[in-house]
Design brief:
By secondary structure, the protein is an alpha/beta fold. 39% of the residues lie in helices and 20% in strands. The strands form four sheets. A six-stranded mixed β-sheet has the order 6-1-5-8-11-12, sandwiched between helices. Helix 4 packs parallel to helix 5. The radius of gyration is 24 Å and the shape is globular. It starts with 6 loop residues before the first helix and ends in an 8-residue tail after the last helix.
């Protein structure tokens, strides 16, 4: 015959599996990455002593202001992220918890991921150059077929600097089209992929990138139109958020902002 357990003893016995499960969850690695604001780089300047944008085949302009490409940094694909890390990240304003597969391609080794990110960056640079030169040709600038552009941005991978590369090329070759600066002398940051036709695409980590831009002194942030809400969630009131969906739209918005002309879109 089985002895009947008291109510406290029965509750304690039932709680043991739950406690064991929580203990395992607390120590077991989880499929997440912890991301935070990364460094920013002025694409009109230098990175590690080398020009980010190098142009030959046409005269370039001296530029003022800054066009800052922004990044996020995340725990590596092999890093162990535990329940405590996830809990801390959920409550930290300068961190985000992201599924590891959304940061790194699933099933790839660290070396394969690095190679993938470099390939994406190379494709982004090629598209940024083609989009910028096509824009200038459409605006009537001669000799774009002779222009050669070399882009480099240290160890940054992925395609999210595409828009800023295109804007940097345009600013160095043509400015605002009438002798002025595309930046208007301001520190402007932004993010967004770009394709050969000049269409701007969404990227990840926008709320963190806005924080990086603010930390490094940017007062204007160009954001893919679909991600305005994410940008507004962490942007200070002093930062102007401009939604963009095409390269031409981004150039027009910056030119109108510089000349205080027209209605510049905002998030």
């Amino acid at each position: 015959m089985l002895n009947r357990l008291s109510r406290p003893a029965a509750l304690a016995l039932c709680a043991l599996p739950v406690i064991a499960l929580l203990a395992v969850a607390g120590f077991a690695p989880l499929p997440f990455s912890v991301a935070q604001p990364g460094p920013t780089t002025n694409v009109l300047g230098e990175d590690d002593g080398k020009a980010v944008i190098k142009i030959t085949g046409a005269p370039t302009r001296d530029t003022r202001g800054a066009l800052r490409a922004v990044t996020i940094v995340a725990t590596g694909p092999d890093a162990s992220v535990h329940f405590g890390d996830v809990l801390d990240g959920w409550f930290a304003e300068n961190q985000a918890i992201m599924p590891r597969d959304s940061v790194y391609p699933a099933g790839n080794s660290t070396k394969e991921i690095e190679a993938h990110n470099k390939d994406e960056m190379k494709g982004s640079q090629d598209a940024a150059t083609e989009a910028a030169l096509a824009y200038l040709a459409d605006e009537g600038q001669d000799g774009t077929d002779k222009v050669r552009v070399t882009l480099q941005l240290g160890d940054v991978g992925g395609p999210s600097a595409g828009l800023l590369f295109s804007l940097g090329i345009i600013d160095m070759l043509d400015g605002d089209g009438s002798g002025g600066e595309l930046t208007g002398g301001k520190s402007i940051a932004g993010t967004g992929t770009i394709d050969d036709d000049g269409k701007v695409g969404a990227v990840g980590g926008v709320s963190l990138k806005v924080q990086a831009a603010d930390r490094d002194g940017a007062t204007v942030f160009l954001v893919p139109k679909a991600e305005c809400a994410d940008a507004k969630a962490s942007a200070p009131k002093s930062m102007r958020l401009i939604p963009v969906s095409t390269l031409k739209g981004a150039v027009t918005a910056l030119t109108d902002l510089e000349k205080d002309f027209g209605s510049v879109p905002k998030c």
